[in-house]
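Board notes (copied after class):
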Amino acid sequence: MPDKEHISTNSFGSISKHLNKVPSEKIMRAGKVLRDAILSRAPHIIRDRKYHLKTYRQCCVGTELVDWQMQQSSCVYSRVQAVGMWQVLLEEGVLNHVDQELTFQDKYLFYRFLDDEQEDAPLPTEEETRESDEELQDTLVLLSQIGPDAHMRMILRKQPGQRTADDLEIIYEELLHIKALSHLSTTVKRELAGVLIFESHAKAGTGVVCTLHEGDDFGKLALVNDAPRAASIVLREDNCHFLRVDKEDFNRILKDVEANTVRLKEHYQDVLVLEKSPSSSSQVSTHGSTTTSSSSHYKY
């Protein structure tokens, strides 16, 4: 069992309210199915717990929830994946941290299902238990499909200085699929992974400034000219999510990378690009062929 950590420890900043105040019907049902299944298959997981002389009613431990979920289906293949699946419920308030933090962690931390927030929460009937057993596998498949996005949002809500190496790698892998960033080098994308901030807006505004589609970006001209934005962005739809990078960070990254880059051009096209790297090994690419050198401090 992992070392017990203080229940009020918040390593992601002070977040005290849910993104979705009213859970969707689909996620509400998923939470009920999981709660009923736990009560019928492993009722010891949901119980009163004491910590530092305080009693927490009808709680579950994060590590035990992950253990249980991984035992229920082959579609749950890693603890990281299971964390993302529980994070889905946490974001919508169907599962709650006892201190109302919006992050699910695979640690000795206490969580409570929404149904258990009320006094003397009823146990599922035989009919409800049967229905939950029938729906459990479909519910786990659903959560496994939407869990990665919830896990990504959880990582992006961390302060940049609190992101682990694994967190940065997950963000970087996501940036590879964003069309607006496709022209940026690998080094720039990796630097951006450390400074990007998640921003969400629940309600749309009125009027349309410019219609954007998934993967589009805006504001580049102001960044290049080091000028303030001339307009505010008005949302066309509810529940819009953005990846935001401060202008100072963006300019610094581009300046640092360009200062450490050597380009060889032929007919006005780059045929060799060398980027200075702190590592001792490097890769150099020319016209599609790759060679490895242990003495160079530059890489492609």
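Comment from the instructor: The chain has eight helices and eleven strands. Residues 1-17, 280-300 have pLDDT under 50 and may be disordered.
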